């Protein structure tokens, strides 16, 4: 699990979109030694699952249908029973079974965000690209959704790159954080090593510190914005 951190407009979404093949780019993107840049969109979508920042459209489809068509789009060869069991497994893992027969148009923004994430997970990609997957979720769902993403990522041996603004969520659940700034990559590594007062100042322009909570988890506290002259 890798968190992609950095201030607004620094390029977090652009990075994920580029890895997903949505922008022209130069250079190399290697996944397990496979060059993604030369893969066809059809090949790439089987390896890479992308969750955009925008929520799924509030269509008249029920969640179950939306999930089944997400599986069918990348695995048309899969027997119906297998596709259906993948959908059920994913709903159960995320705790979303109650929403299975609800229309997306009748769901709240947060519920649609969770269905969007479920549509990515159900395809079992090798690389998950999640752009602010918890932005519309309440505190309980933020924790449970990211915990489930971590469990599934670990179980399937997948890689997850997640753009987030919540540094504490990133520190708690990610193995690695990368911090983007105006000049490019500012830092990358284990959260406890990367997240320092210096990087908070350099990346975000704030004075802050990393403390430990009573559960001994690292917590970033922000004191104030750096004064600009
Ligand atoms: N490497 C880059 N070179 C040129 N333009 C870039 C680059 N990265 C991002 N941009 C441009 O900067 C703008 C904002 O980028 P992006 O949406 O990726 O930022 P973000 O970090 O995801 O922001 P936010 O946290 O506000 O969602 C976009 O218009 C994008 O085209």
From TrEMBL:
Give the ABC transporter domain ranges: 1-207
Q: Which family does it belong to?
A: Belongs to the ABC transporter superfamily.
Superkingdom classification of source = Bacteria
Regions annotated as coiled coil: none
One of the Pfam families matching this protein, by short name: ABC_tran
- Mind listing the GO molecular function terms for this protein? ATP binding
Q: What's in the keyword line of the UniProt record? A: ATP-binding, Nucleotide-binding, Transport
Question: What name appears for this protein in its UniProt entry?
Answer: ABC transporter ATP-binding protein
Q: Which organism is it from?
A: Archangium minus
* Regions crossing the membrane: none
